[in-house]
Design a protein that fits this description.
Helix 1 crosses helix 3. By secondary structure, this protein is an alpha/beta fold. The radius of gyration is 33 Å and the shape is rod-shaped. The protein folds into 3 domains: 85 residues, Winged helix-like DNA-binding domain superfamily/Winged helix DNA-binding domain (Arc Repressor Mutant, subunit A, Orthogonal Bundle), CATH 1.10.10.10; 55 residues, 3-Layer(aba) Sandwich (D-Maltodextrin-Binding Protein, domain 2), CATH 3.40.190.10; 92 residues, D-Maltodextrin-Binding Protein, domain 2 (3-Layer(aba) Sandwich), CATH 3.40.190.10. The longest helix has 29 residues. A 3-stranded parallel sheet has the order 4-3-5.
Length: 261
């Protein structure tokens, strides 16, 4: 059934006058009469009674009118949703993010996005950078907030949102924590807590490479994925934390912060 026929039926039912209905529909009267006849033939019932006194709805027409209005309304909603999704103003957006993004980057982005695109439904999913890149590649995610370096697919485009330094966190009681400045080479005898190779291989290698440029390979005593998980062992004195990325507030309660490297 053509939705134009439904629209013509509804307008004629509201005006009960072929001339007025044709004017509202921006068409001439004869084609409108033909269209209504075709609709009645398709349905197998008369929708209007035509007489010298004008046009009126049959019982079938009155019964069908409410459903015809609903059908036109939902057709309009369907069109709006499709157009909105195609232009980025509606639909569903699946977003993957690393846990540390919830502290600053993600809340700021989401706040601005929701103000600009209130009709878009966001589906948020926390994961590691490696997992997010995989799900972007297989299209189970639409966009991701990750930490680089990460291996990437040629179909994925990376845009920089923020630049951060590596930060060293260590117990306040550690002898090196009393210094006002530190160089990376001062840590060559320390145990390190680094990113897990299985979940943040790129960041782990970047931290190791920084140490190697300073003349030593770090002795890894423990691995972790989240920034907070690396900071807590430092506060307990279980090791120095090199390769922790983030802003100082992440660590201040549990550890003493030294210069970035």
């Amino acid at each position: 059934m053509d939705f134009r026929h439904l629209q013509q039926f509804v307008v004629l039912a509201e005006t009960l006058n072929f001339r007025k209905a044709a004017e509202k529909l921006h068409m001439s009267q004869p084609p409108l009469s033909v269209s209504i006849r075709k609709l009645e033939t398709e349905l197998g019932v008369a929708l209007f009674l035509r007489g010298k006194d004008g046009v009126r709805l049959t019982e079938s027409g009155e019964a069908a009118l409410a459903d015809a209005r609903r059908a036109l309304f939902h057709a309009g909603q369907f069109k709006q949703a499709a157009v909105a999704a195609s232009t980025g103003e509606g639909g569903i957006l699946r977003v993957g993010f690393v846990g540390s993004a919830t502290h600053a980057i993600l809340p700021s982005i989401l706040s601005q996005f929701r103000r600009r695109y209130p009709a878009v439904q966001l589906v948020l999913r926390e994961a590691t950078s490696i997992r997010i890149m995989k799900e972007l590649a297989d299209e189970s995610l639409d966009v991701g907030v990750v930490r680089v370096p990460v291996s990437t697919d040629f179909r994925i485009r990376l845009l920089a949102l923020q630049t951060e330094n590596f930060v060293l966190a260590m117990p306040k009681s550690h002898p090196l924590a009393q210094r006002t400045t530190l160089k990376l080479k001062d840590l060559y005898e320390e145990d390190f807590i680094l990113y897990a190779a299985s979940d943040a291989a790129g960041l782990r290698m970047a931290a190791i490479h920084a140490c190697q440029l300073s003349g030593f390979t770090p002795r890894v005593a423990q691995e972790a994925v989240q920034v907070q998980n690396r900071a807590r062992p430092c506060g307990s004195g279980s090791g120095s934390c090199a390769g922790a990325i983030g802003q100082p507030p992440f660590y201040q309660q549990a550890t003493g912060l030294q210069d970035t490297f």
